[in-house]
Here is the input.
Amino acid sequence: MVALVIVLALFFDFTNGFHDTANAMATPIATGALKPKAAVAIAASLNLVGAFLSTEVARTISGGLIREGDGGIQITPVMIFAGLIGATLWNMVTWFLGLPSSSSHALFGGLIGAAIVGAGFGSVDFSVLLSKVVFPALLAPLTAGLVAFIAVKIAYAVTKKRQRNGFKHGQVFTSSLVSLAHGTNDAQKTMGVITLTLIAGGFQATGSGPEFWVIAVCALAIALGTYTGGWRIIRTMGKGLTEIEPGQGFAAEASTAATILASSHLGFALSTTQVSSGSVIGTGIGRKGASVRWRTAGRIALGWLITIPAAAAVGALAAFVALSGTAGVVIDTVVAVGVIVGIFVYARRNRVDARNVHDEPTVLVRPKRSRKQRQADEKAARKEGSAS
Amino acid sequence: MIDWPAFFVVLVATLVAASAVVTLYSLGLRLVDRSGERHAVWQRPMGIACFVACGLVVLYGVYLVIPYFHQ
Here is the structure.
Protein backbone atom coordinates (compact mmCIF):
# COMPACT_ATOMS: atom_id res chain seq x y z
CA MET A 1 0.00 0.00 0.00
CA VAL A 2 2.75 2.43 0.99
CA ALA A 3 4.68 1.66 -2.20
CA LEU A 4 1.53 2.22 -4.25
CA VAL A 5 0.94 5.60 -2.61
CA ILE A 6 4.53 6.62 -3.30
CA VAL A 7 4.27 5.71 -6.97
CA LEU A 8 0.97 7.55 -7.30
CA ALA A 9 2.35 10.55 -5.42
CA LEU A 10 5.29 10.71 -7.82
CA PHE A 11 2.96 10.56 -10.77
CA PHE A 12 0.95 13.40 -9.25
CA ASP A 13 4.21 15.33 -8.91
CA PHE A 14 4.86 14.69 -12.59
CA THR A 15 1.43 16.01 -13.63
CA ASN A 16 2.03 18.96 -11.31
CA GLY A 17 5.23 19.67 -13.21
CA PHE A 18 3.75 19.66 -16.66
CA HIS A 19 0.71 21.53 -15.51
CA ASP A 20 2.79 24.38 -14.18
CA THR A 21 5.43 24.79 -16.88
CA ALA A 22 3.03 27.29 -18.38
CA ASN A 23 3.10 29.56 -15.33
CA ALA A 24 6.67 30.56 -15.95
CA MET A 25 7.28 29.75 -19.58
CA ALA A 26 4.08 30.50 -21.51
CA THR A 27 4.93 34.19 -21.93
CA PRO A 28 8.58 33.89 -23.03
CA ILE A 29 7.57 31.17 -25.48
CA ALA A 30 4.74 33.30 -26.81
CA THR A 31 6.95 36.33 -27.42
CA GLY A 32 9.81 34.29 -28.83
CA ALA A 33 12.18 35.33 -26.04
CA LEU A 34 12.99 31.66 -25.57
CA LYS A 35 12.70 28.72 -27.94
CA PRO A 36 10.06 26.30 -26.67
CA LYS A 37 12.51 23.47 -26.00
CA ALA A 38 15.03 25.78 -24.32
CA ALA A 39 12.28 27.27 -22.16
CA VAL A 40 11.10 23.93 -20.80
CA ALA A 41 14.71 22.83 -20.25
CA ILE A 42 15.41 25.94 -18.16
CA ALA A 43 12.16 25.51 -16.24
CA ALA A 44 12.92 21.85 -15.59
CA SER A 45 16.43 22.44 -14.29
CA LEU A 46 15.28 25.32 -12.08
CA ASN A 47 12.51 23.16 -10.69
CA LEU A 48 15.04 20.45 -9.96
CA VAL A 49 17.35 22.89 -8.22
CA GLY A 50 14.47 24.56 -6.42
CA ALA A 51 13.23 21.28 -4.99
CA PHE A 52 16.60 20.69 -3.33
CA LEU A 53 16.97 24.25 -2.09
CA SER A 54 13.99 24.31 0.15
CA THR A 55 12.78 21.33 2.12
CA GLU A 56 10.59 22.88 4.72
CA VAL A 57 7.88 20.32 4.50
CA ALA A 58 4.53 21.29 5.85
CA ARG A 59 3.82 19.06 8.82
CA THR A 60 0.28 18.75 7.69
CA ILE A 61 0.01 18.54 3.95
CA SER A 62 -3.55 19.72 4.11
CA GLY A 63 -2.60 22.89 6.03
CA GLY A 64 -5.30 22.45 8.66
CA LEU A 65 -8.06 21.76 6.16
CA ILE A 66 -8.58 18.31 7.53
CA ARG A 67 -8.76 17.96 11.29
CA GLU A 68 -5.99 15.49 11.73
CA GLY A 69 -3.90 14.49 14.73
CA ASP A 70 -4.99 14.62 18.37
CA GLY A 71 -8.74 14.70 18.83
CA GLY A 72 -9.23 14.70 15.09
CA ILE A 73 -9.20 11.90 12.60
CA GLN A 74 -6.43 9.55 11.65
CA ILE A 75 -5.44 9.94 8.03
CA THR A 76 -4.68 6.50 6.70
CA PRO A 77 -2.56 5.60 3.67
CA VAL A 78 -5.74 4.38 1.97
CA MET A 79 -7.29 7.84 2.28
CA ILE A 80 -4.15 9.51 0.96
CA PHE A 81 -4.21 7.03 -1.90
CA ALA A 82 -7.82 7.89 -2.76
CA GLY A 83 -7.11 11.61 -2.45
CA LEU A 84 -4.16 11.32 -4.81
CA ILE A 85 -6.28 9.49 -7.35
CA GLY A 86 -8.78 12.34 -7.29
CA ALA A 87 -6.05 14.97 -7.64
CA THR A 88 -4.14 13.18 -10.39
CA LEU A 89 -7.17 12.38 -12.52
CA TRP A 90 -8.43 15.95 -12.28
CA ASN A 91 -4.97 17.23 -13.30
CA MET A 92 -5.09 14.94 -16.33
CA VAL A 93 -8.54 16.17 -17.35
CA THR A 94 -7.61 19.84 -17.05
CA TRP A 95 -4.36 19.24 -18.93
CA PHE A 96 -6.32 17.57 -21.70
CA LEU A 97 -8.63 20.58 -21.93
CA GLY A 98 -5.64 22.93 -21.81
CA LEU A 99 -6.91 24.62 -18.66
CA PRO A 100 -4.37 26.03 -16.22
CA SER A 101 -5.71 24.93 -12.85
CA SER A 102 -4.09 24.79 -9.47
CA SER A 103 -2.49 21.46 -8.61
CA SER A 104 -2.61 22.32 -4.92
CA HIS A 105 -6.34 22.79 -5.16
CA ALA A 106 -6.65 19.43 -6.88
CA LEU A 107 -4.67 17.83 -4.07
CA PHE A 108 -6.76 19.56 -1.38
CA GLY A 109 -9.94 18.58 -3.20
CA GLY A 110 -8.95 14.93 -3.52
CA LEU A 111 -7.98 14.70 0.14
CA ILE A 112 -11.17 16.45 1.25
CA GLY A 113 -13.28 14.01 -0.74
CA ALA A 114 -11.40 11.02 0.65
CA ALA A 115 -11.61 12.36 4.21
CA ILE A 116 -15.35 12.96 3.98
CA VAL A 117 -15.96 9.39 2.86
CA GLY A 118 -13.41 7.95 5.27
CA ALA A 119 -14.28 9.96 8.36
CA GLY A 120 -17.45 11.96 7.74
CA PHE A 121 -18.17 15.63 7.11
CA GLY A 122 -16.85 16.63 10.51
CA SER A 123 -13.33 15.83 9.39
CA VAL A 124 -13.13 18.85 7.13
CA ASP A 125 -12.73 22.32 8.54
CA PHE A 126 -14.85 24.35 6.15
CA SER A 127 -13.95 27.73 7.64
CA VAL A 128 -10.28 26.99 6.91
CA LEU A 129 -11.33 25.91 3.42
CA LEU A 130 -12.96 29.30 2.89
CA SER A 131 -10.25 31.49 4.39
CA LYS A 132 -7.23 29.58 3.09
CA VAL A 133 -8.41 28.36 -0.27
CA VAL A 134 -11.56 29.98 -1.63
CA PHE A 135 -10.89 33.65 -0.84
CA PRO A 136 -7.22 33.57 -1.81
CA ALA A 137 -8.32 31.99 -5.08
CA LEU A 138 -10.46 35.07 -5.76
CA LEU A 139 -7.81 37.53 -4.62
CA ALA A 140 -4.82 35.95 -6.41
CA PRO A 141 -5.77 36.78 -10.00
CA LEU A 142 -7.11 40.20 -8.97
CA THR A 143 -3.92 41.18 -7.17
CA ALA A 144 -1.63 39.91 -9.89
CA GLY A 145 -3.87 41.37 -12.58
CA LEU A 146 -3.87 44.83 -10.99
CA VAL A 147 -0.11 44.83 -10.48
CA ALA A 148 0.53 43.59 -14.00
CA PHE A 149 -1.84 46.24 -15.38
CA ILE A 150 0.17 48.98 -13.70
CA ALA A 151 3.49 47.38 -14.61
CA VAL A 152 2.64 47.18 -18.30
CA LYS A 153 1.46 50.82 -18.28
CA ILE A 154 4.82 51.85 -16.84
CA ALA A 155 6.78 49.73 -19.32
CA TYR A 156 4.96 51.19 -22.30
CA ALA A 157 5.08 54.74 -21.00
CA VAL A 158 8.83 54.71 -20.45
CA THR A 159 10.01 52.95 -23.58
CA LYS A 160 9.64 53.84 -27.21
CA LYS A 161 8.28 51.35 -29.66
CA ARG A 162 11.57 50.41 -31.30
CA GLN A 163 13.19 49.76 -27.92
CA ARG A 164 10.67 47.22 -26.76
CA ASN A 165 12.31 44.18 -28.27
CA GLY A 166 14.91 44.57 -25.53
CA PHE A 167 12.36 43.23 -23.08
CA LYS A 168 12.99 39.78 -24.53
CA HIS A 169 16.37 39.57 -22.79
CA GLY A 170 14.79 40.59 -19.51
CA GLN A 171 12.10 37.97 -19.92
CA VAL A 172 14.68 35.21 -19.70
CA PHE A 173 15.55 36.32 -16.18
CA THR A 174 12.09 37.09 -14.88
CA SER A 175 10.63 33.82 -16.15
CA SER A 176 13.52 31.93 -14.60
CA LEU A 177 12.79 33.57 -11.28
CA VAL A 178 9.17 32.43 -11.51
CA SER A 179 10.38 28.89 -12.27
CA LEU A 180 12.74 28.82 -9.32
CA ALA A 181 10.09 30.12 -6.94
CA HIS A 182 7.74 27.47 -8.25
CA GLY A 183 10.29 24.71 -7.77
CA THR A 184 10.86 25.60 -4.13
CA ASN A 185 7.12 25.40 -3.48
CA ASP A 186 5.59 22.64 -5.47
CA ALA A 187 7.81 19.60 -5.04
CA GLN A 188 7.31 20.12 -1.29
CA LYS A 189 3.72 19.03 -1.52
CA THR A 190 4.63 15.60 -2.82
CA MET A 191 7.50 15.25 -0.37
CA GLY A 192 4.99 16.01 2.37
CA VAL A 193 2.56 13.39 1.08
CA ILE A 194 5.22 10.70 0.83
CA THR A 195 6.73 11.50 4.21
CA LEU A 196 3.31 11.46 5.82
CA THR A 197 2.62 8.07 4.26
CA LEU A 198 5.95 6.68 5.44
CA ILE A 199 5.23 7.91 8.96
CA ALA A 200 1.69 6.51 8.88
CA GLY A 201 3.07 3.18 7.64
CA GLY A 202 5.58 3.10 10.48
CA PHE A 203 8.66 3.36 8.27
CA GLN A 204 9.81 6.66 9.67
CA ALA A 205 9.81 8.34 13.06
CA THR A 206 6.95 10.73 13.76
CA GLY A 207 7.86 14.35 13.24
CA SER A 208 10.99 13.68 11.20
CA GLY A 209 11.73 15.42 7.94
CA PRO A 210 11.81 13.85 4.49
CA GLU A 211 14.53 11.33 3.69
CA PHE A 212 17.07 12.31 1.07
CA TRP A 213 15.80 9.78 -1.48
CA VAL A 214 12.30 11.23 -1.14
CA ILE A 215 13.59 14.71 -1.91
CA ALA A 216 15.58 13.38 -4.86
CA VAL A 217 12.79 11.41 -6.51
CA CYS A 218 10.27 14.21 -6.00
CA ALA A 219 12.66 16.71 -7.53
CA LEU A 220 13.24 14.40 -10.48
CA ALA A 221 9.54 13.71 -10.98
CA ILE A 222 8.58 17.39 -11.06
CA ALA A 223 11.52 18.26 -13.30
CA LEU A 224 10.65 15.48 -15.72
CA GLY A 225 7.04 16.64 -15.77
CA THR A 226 8.15 20.21 -16.41
CA TYR A 227 10.45 19.14 -19.22
CA THR A 228 7.70 17.13 -20.87
CA GLY A 229 5.93 20.44 -20.97
CA GLY A 230 2.22 21.00 -20.74
CA TRP A 231 2.08 22.35 -24.26
CA ARG A 232 -1.68 22.50 -24.22
CA ILE A 233 -1.69 24.77 -21.21
CA ILE A 234 1.25 26.80 -22.50
CA ARG A 235 -0.75 27.48 -25.63
CA THR A 236 -3.80 28.57 -23.68
CA MET A 237 -1.79 30.92 -21.47
CA GLY A 238 0.53 32.24 -24.15
CA LYS A 239 -1.85 32.56 -27.08
CA GLY A 240 -5.38 31.94 -25.88
CA LEU A 241 -5.85 34.76 -23.39
CA THR A 242 -4.40 37.72 -25.24
CA GLU A 243 -1.64 38.39 -27.72
CA ILE A 244 1.57 39.00 -25.83
CA GLU A 245 4.34 41.41 -26.78
CA PRO A 246 7.79 41.29 -25.13
CA GLY A 247 7.10 44.30 -22.91
CA GLN A 248 3.88 42.73 -21.76
CA GLY A 249 5.53 39.39 -21.12
CA PHE A 250 8.21 41.08 -19.04
CA ALA A 251 5.64 42.99 -17.01
CA ALA A 252 3.54 39.86 -16.51
CA GLU A 253 6.48 37.78 -15.31
CA ALA A 254 7.77 40.51 -13.02
CA SER A 255 4.30 40.78 -11.47
CA THR A 256 3.94 37.02 -11.14
CA ALA A 257 7.34 36.68 -9.47
CA ALA A 258 6.69 39.63 -7.16
CA THR A 259 3.25 38.37 -6.16
CA ILE A 260 4.42 34.83 -5.46
CA LEU A 261 7.46 35.94 -3.48
CA ALA A 262 5.61 38.57 -1.49
CA SER A 263 2.71 36.27 -0.71
CA SER A 264 4.83 33.34 0.37
CA HIS A 265 7.07 35.50 2.54
CA LEU A 266 4.47 37.73 4.12
CA GLY A 267 2.10 34.96 5.08
CA PHE A 268 -0.73 35.13 2.62
CA ALA A 269 -0.23 32.20 0.31
CA LEU A 270 -1.57 32.51 -3.22
CA SER A 271 -1.69 29.91 -5.97
CA THR A 272 1.03 30.22 -8.62
CA THR A 273 -1.32 29.22 -11.42
CA GLN A 274 -3.93 31.78 -10.52
CA VAL A 275 -1.37 34.50 -10.03
CA SER A 276 0.22 34.01 -13.42
CA SER A 277 -3.09 33.76 -15.28
CA GLY A 278 -4.13 36.97 -13.58
CA SER A 279 -0.90 38.67 -14.62
CA VAL A 280 -1.33 37.72 -18.25
CA ILE A 281 -4.89 39.07 -18.29
CA GLY A 282 -3.79 42.22 -16.47
CA THR A 283 -1.19 43.02 -19.10
CA GLY A 284 -3.77 42.32 -21.79
CA ILE A 285 -6.03 44.98 -20.33
CA GLY A 286 -3.15 47.36 -19.70
CA ARG A 287 -1.59 47.46 -23.14
CA LYS A 288 -3.34 49.61 -25.68
CA GLY A 289 -4.40 47.60 -28.69
CA ALA A 290 -4.40 44.27 -26.93
CA SER A 291 -7.67 42.50 -26.38
CA VAL A 292 -8.45 39.89 -23.80
CA ARG A 293 -10.43 36.85 -24.84
CA TRP A 294 -12.86 36.79 -21.98
CA ARG A 295 -14.43 33.56 -23.17
CA THR A 296 -11.17 31.75 -22.56
CA ALA A 297 -10.67 33.57 -19.27
CA GLY A 298 -14.18 32.56 -18.26
CA ARG A 299 -13.49 28.92 -19.04
CA ILE A 300 -10.35 29.05 -16.94
CA ALA A 301 -12.22 30.65 -14.05
CA LEU A 302 -14.90 27.97 -14.32
CA GLY A 303 -12.14 25.36 -14.21
CA TRP A 304 -10.84 26.87 -10.96
CA LEU A 305 -14.31 26.91 -9.50
CA ILE A 306 -14.91 23.23 -10.07
CA THR A 307 -11.37 22.00 -9.35
CA ILE A 308 -11.97 21.34 -5.65
CA PRO A 309 -15.44 19.81 -5.95
CA ALA A 310 -14.44 17.72 -8.96
CA ALA A 311 -11.25 16.39 -7.41
CA ALA A 312 -13.19 15.82 -4.17
CA ALA A 313 -15.85 13.83 -6.02
CA VAL A 314 -13.26 11.59 -7.64
CA GLY A 315 -11.37 11.29 -4.35
CA ALA A 316 -14.58 10.40 -2.52
CA LEU A 317 -15.50 7.76 -5.07
CA ALA A 318 -12.00 6.31 -4.96
CA ALA A 319 -12.07 6.28 -1.16
CA PHE A 320 -15.45 4.61 -1.15
CA VAL A 321 -14.13 1.80 -3.35
CA ALA A 322 -10.72 1.57 -1.67
CA LEU A 323 -12.07 1.37 1.86
CA SER A 324 -13.90 -1.83 1.00
CA GLY A 325 -10.61 -3.72 1.17
CA THR A 326 -7.70 -4.90 -0.92
CA ALA A 327 -9.92 -5.68 -3.90
CA GLY A 328 -11.15 -2.08 -3.81
CA VAL A 329 -7.60 -0.71 -3.91
CA VAL A 330 -6.83 -2.95 -6.88
CA ILE A 331 -9.97 -1.82 -8.70
CA ASP A 332 -9.07 1.83 -8.00
CA THR A 333 -5.56 1.37 -9.33
CA VAL A 334 -6.70 -0.40 -12.48
CA VAL A 335 -9.40 2.17 -13.23
CA ALA A 336 -7.06 5.11 -12.54
CA VAL A 337 -4.31 3.73 -14.75
CA GLY A 338 -6.90 2.98 -17.42
CA VAL A 339 -8.26 6.53 -17.37
CA ILE A 340 -4.78 8.10 -17.41
CA VAL A 341 -3.61 5.95 -20.32
CA GLY A 342 -6.93 6.60 -22.05
CA ILE A 343 -6.50 10.38 -21.77
CA PHE A 344 -2.93 10.20 -23.06
CA VAL A 345 -3.96 8.07 -26.03
CA TYR A 346 -6.98 10.23 -26.76
CA ALA A 347 -4.86 13.38 -26.49
CA ARG A 348 -2.60 12.12 -29.27
CA ARG A 349 -5.46 12.67 -31.69
CA ASN A 350 -4.77 16.35 -31.60
CA ARG A 351 -1.32 16.78 -30.26
CA VAL A 352 0.07 20.04 -29.02
CA ASP A 353 3.82 20.07 -28.64
CA ALA A 354 6.91 22.21 -29.14
CA ARG A 355 6.24 22.45 -32.87
CA ASN A 356 2.68 23.68 -32.98
CA VAL A 357 2.55 25.52 -29.68
CA HIS A 358 2.41 28.81 -31.55
CA ASP A 359 -0.79 28.01 -33.40
CA GLU A 360 -3.79 30.01 -32.34
CA PRO A 361 -6.19 27.83 -30.46
CA THR A 362 -9.71 28.54 -31.63
CA VAL A 363 -11.57 27.56 -28.50
CA LEU A 364 -8.76 26.33 -26.29
CA VAL A 365 -7.87 22.85 -27.40
CA ARG A 366 -10.84 21.33 -29.06
CA PRO A 367 -11.38 18.09 -27.26
CA LYS A 368 -13.18 16.34 -30.02
CA ARG A 369 -13.47 16.63 -33.74
CA SER A 370 -15.70 14.53 -35.84
CA ARG A 371 -14.28 13.02 -39.00
CA LYS A 372 -16.42 15.34 -41.11
CA GLN A 373 -15.09 18.43 -39.34
CA ARG A 374 -11.55 17.22 -39.65
CA GLN A 375 -11.91 16.64 -43.36
CA ALA A 376 -13.37 20.12 -43.73
CA ASP A 377 -10.48 21.59 -41.74
CA GLU A 378 -7.92 19.79 -43.83
CA LYS A 379 -9.59 20.98 -47.01
CA ALA A 380 -9.50 24.55 -45.74
CA ALA A 381 -5.86 24.18 -44.78
CA ARG A 382 -4.99 22.87 -48.22
CA LYS A 383 -6.83 25.73 -49.86
CA GLU A 384 -4.92 28.21 -47.71
CA GLY A 385 -1.68 26.49 -48.58
CA SER A 386 -2.25 26.69 -52.31
CA ALA A 387 -3.43 30.29 -52.10
CA SER A 388 -0.33 31.59 -50.37
CA MET B 1 -12.09 35.23 8.45
CA ILE B 2 -9.68 36.74 6.04
CA ASP B 3 -6.47 38.40 7.06
CA TRP B 4 -6.94 41.77 5.34
CA PRO B 5 -3.91 43.54 6.84
CA ALA B 6 -1.66 40.69 5.64
CA PHE B 7 -3.25 40.83 2.23
CA PHE B 8 -2.79 44.59 2.05
CA VAL B 9 0.90 44.25 2.92
CA VAL B 10 1.30 41.65 0.20
CA LEU B 11 -0.48 43.86 -2.33
CA VAL B 12 1.69 46.89 -1.56
CA ALA B 13 4.93 44.90 -1.50
CA THR B 14 4.05 43.29 -4.82
CA LEU B 15 3.17 46.60 -6.38
CA VAL B 16 6.40 48.23 -5.25
CA ALA B 17 8.61 45.31 -6.30
CA ALA B 18 7.03 44.77 -9.71
CA SER B 19 6.97 48.49 -10.49
CA ALA B 20 10.61 48.83 -9.46
CA VAL B 21 11.75 46.00 -11.72
CA VAL B 22 9.73 47.17 -14.69
CA THR B 23 10.62 50.86 -14.29
CA LEU B 24 14.34 50.20 -13.94
CA TYR B 25 14.46 47.82 -16.87
CA SER B 26 12.41 50.14 -19.08
CA LEU B 27 14.57 53.13 -18.16
CA GLY B 28 17.63 51.05 -18.92
CA LEU B 29 16.29 50.16 -22.34
CA ARG B 30 15.43 53.75 -23.10
CA LEU B 31 18.76 55.19 -21.99
CA VAL B 32 20.96 52.58 -23.61
CA ASP B 33 19.25 52.91 -26.99
CA ARG B 34 21.60 54.75 -29.35
CA SER B 35 19.46 55.11 -32.41
CA GLY B 36 17.76 58.23 -30.98
CA GLU B 37 18.31 61.71 -32.32
CA ARG B 38 19.95 63.33 -29.30
CA HIS B 39 22.27 61.28 -27.21
CA ALA B 40 24.12 62.70 -24.24
CA VAL B 41 27.29 61.13 -22.89
CA TRP B 42 25.80 60.34 -19.49
CA GLN B 43 22.90 58.33 -20.91
CA ARG B 44 24.60 55.04 -21.59
CA PRO B 45 26.28 54.65 -18.16
CA MET B 46 23.00 55.64 -16.53
CA GLY B 47 21.17 53.00 -18.55
CA ILE B 48 23.64 50.36 -17.51
CA ALA B 49 23.25 51.46 -13.89
CA CYS B 50 19.49 50.93 -14.28
CA PHE B 51 20.03 47.41 -15.54
CA VAL B 52 22.35 46.67 -12.64
CA ALA B 53 19.85 48.02 -10.12
CA CYS B 54 17.13 45.93 -11.73
CA GLY B 55 19.38 42.88 -11.53
CA LEU B 56 19.93 43.55 -7.83
CA VAL B 57 16.18 43.60 -7.20
CA VAL B 58 15.88 40.26 -9.02
CA LEU B 59 18.79 38.87 -7.01
CA TYR B 60 17.01 39.91 -3.85
CA GLY B 61 14.13 37.79 -5.15
CA VAL B 62 16.49 34.83 -5.53
CA TYR B 63 17.70 35.47 -2.00
CA LEU B 64 14.10 35.30 -0.76
CA VAL B 65 13.46 32.09 -2.67
CA ILE B 66 16.34 30.22 -1.06
CA PRO B 67 15.59 29.69 2.64
CA TYR B 68 19.20 28.70 3.32
CA PHE B 69 20.22 32.38 3.28
CA HIS B 70 17.80 33.76 5.80
CA GLN B 71 17.09 31.25 8.49
Notes: Chain A has 13 helices and no strands. The two ends of chain A are 59 Å apart (CA to CA). Chain A has one domain: 2-135+168-241+306-387. Residues 167-200 of chain A form the longest helix (34 residues).
